[in-house]
């Protein structure tokens, strides 16, 4: 039985490498069916899978996929959220992670894929910081979106309080013990000394 309401649309988003795939797996364990297609296979960078759904990339031109999303969770790149139709309501989980960790994780992933990032960390950090500010401003004025910021660093470290906040945000029916069991501290491989931004 699903832990969501029939018309509830849950969106998991955040910067790249911020723990969105982990959150999707946690929600699935907690009783929320994921909307994903499995086209992108699990690998060493995401051993539990990516939980992606290709149609979300075409939301601006074709948002028909939302008809499949009621009562489910879907993962979206934060920049695509601006294209979501305003005639629906969305319960959003925004994964927040230390920027230094994001940059380190992304660099390692690109190296594994033998790709050149094409931009240095300092410039990327400024870009991401600006994008977070823009996203928060958009959330503040968007009546069709309810957003909870979730600290990846706390969850990856095994703290339970953020999971309780997620449960409350989504209606209080999640299996929080099952969600907590998904967290694997050994996968928290790119740690930074600084606190999350």
Secondary-structure blueprint of this entry?
Layout lengths: L8 E6 L5 H11 L41 E4 L14 E7 L2 H14 L8 H20 L4 E7 H5 L4 H9 L6 H7 L15
Parallel strand pairs: 1-2, 1-3, 3-4
Q: What is the overall silhouette?
A: globular
Low-pLDDT residue spans: 193-197
Report the major sheet: 4 strands, parallel
**What is the class in the CATH system?**
Alpha Beta
Order of helices and strands: EHEEHHEHHH
| Domain module count | 1
Strand percentage, roughly? 5-15%
DSSP helix count? 6
Helix content: 25-40%
Judged by helices, strands and strand pairing, the structural class is: alpha/beta
Q: From the coordinates shown, what is the CATH architecture?
A: 3-Layer(aba) Sandwich
Report the mean per-residue pLDDT as an integer.
85
Q: According to CATH, what is the topology?
A: Rossmann fold
Trace the largest sheet across and list its strands: 2-1-3-4
Termini separation: 36 Å
Radius of gyration (Å)? 16 Å
Question: What's the count of strands?
Answer: 4
CATH superfamily: P-loop containing nucleotide triphosphate hydrolases
């Amino acid at each position: 039985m699903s832990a969501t309401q029939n018309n509830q649309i849950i969106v998991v988003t955040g910067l790249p490498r911020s723990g969105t795939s982990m959150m999707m797996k946690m929600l699935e364990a907690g009783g929320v069916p994921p909307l994903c297609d499995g086209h992108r296979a699990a690998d060493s960078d995401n051993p539990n899978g990516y939980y992606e759904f290709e149609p979300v990339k075409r939301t601006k031109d074709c948002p028909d996929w939302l008809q499949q999303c009621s009562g489910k969770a879907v993962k979206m790149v934060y920049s695509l959220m601006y294209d979501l139709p305003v005639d629906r309501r969305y319960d959003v989980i925004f994964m927040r992670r230390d920027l230094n960790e994001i940059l380190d994780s992304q660099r390692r992933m690109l190296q594994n894929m033998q790709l050149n990032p094409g931009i240095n960390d300092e410039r990327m950090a400024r870009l991401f910081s600006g994008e977070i500010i823009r996203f928060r401003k958009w959330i503040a004025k968007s009546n069709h979106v309810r957003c909870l910021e979730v600290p990846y660093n706390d969850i990856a470290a095994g703290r339970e309080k953020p999971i309780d906040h997620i449960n409350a945000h989504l209606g209080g029916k999640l299996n929080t013990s099952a969600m907590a069991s998904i967290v694997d501290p050994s996968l928290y491989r790119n740690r930074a000394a600084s606190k999350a931004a």
